[in-house]
Here is the input.
Amino acid sequence: MQYPEDELIGIIRDAGVDFTASLPCEKIKVLLEKVGQQFFHVPLTREEEGVGICAGAALAGKKPAMFVQSSGIGNMINALLSLTQFYQLPLTLFVSQRGIYKEKIAAQLPMGQRLPKILKGAGIGYSIISTAADFAAVSRNLKSVYKKNRIHAFLLSPEIWEGSSACSTATFDQRPISCQVQQQKRAFLKPECTRYELIEAIVPQLEGRVVVSNLGWPSKELYALKHQPSNFYMLGSMGMVSPIGLGISLSSEKEVVVIDGDGSLLMNPGVLATAAHMSPDNLTIIAIDNSSYGSTGSQKTLTGSCVDLELVARGLGIGNTVKTATRQQLIMALGTKGTGVKFIHALALPGNRDVANIPLDRLQIRDMAKAHLLSE
Here is the structure.
């Protein structure tokens, strides 16, 4: 076969895949180029981020697939287990398996060679695809991923592409980059409210919106203040709340509000660059910054000493940003329209409100959010 890339893409399309995300690998560069041309595609900054984005897309009824290299599995294993597998969401992984065939980079050997055992130990199904003749296994297993809400990894050997005559058609764009971010003078703001008080202030504006809430106390406080079927409560997977919200916003026309936190965003800041690149108008990220890890004992985060999250967001390309420190400022910021993703840096006092645990299990949370997202 001259073009194994085209054969694989045909199988993927026949399975109904309609949402893709990737990080680059030289061994599958032509395949990735074709995927980007023929499917809705999100370029990622980190593999773990892609797990969250694809989880959001799955909640909105999409059939997501990720394209990564074997080393990237090490960056995403916790998110795969505590988010995708935990909430029983579908995800297909096409993995360029390095370190097994004519590998020239020694650092690729440990992860590439141990990958099948790692996946087996994690309870993630996989198929080894050594040549194009093995594509029948892709066709056989792919549709069941979406029917049974499973994760399945297809380990693609570099040997598959050796006989391919397909070549890259990508060209290097030498146009200067225009940045939307403009420097602004900002007055020093001092927080006046706790996270609970800020959420309480915006409860009327959350009515009917899709709200994706950070794990631990933020989700418990949101449940106590404004439980609604359109809320998706995070029960684990720190750092994944903004990626989930981004995935939903790219897969639905509904308004999406993310309640994130400083500790969570510091763990996965690259998602802000991805959000800026994709620039959905229906996504608002509220970063409630109390300079502490509220769910683990209120240890200090670096936003209390050296990091300004609004400047981080602007530096990563989000032009529509605002900093708030009071209830009224947050209410006004949330009600303001703009172009592209909106980022609200809401300064807060540390501390958690003593509220009860959420009396819902993970599948109830998933099913309520999916039902709302798929409703008219």
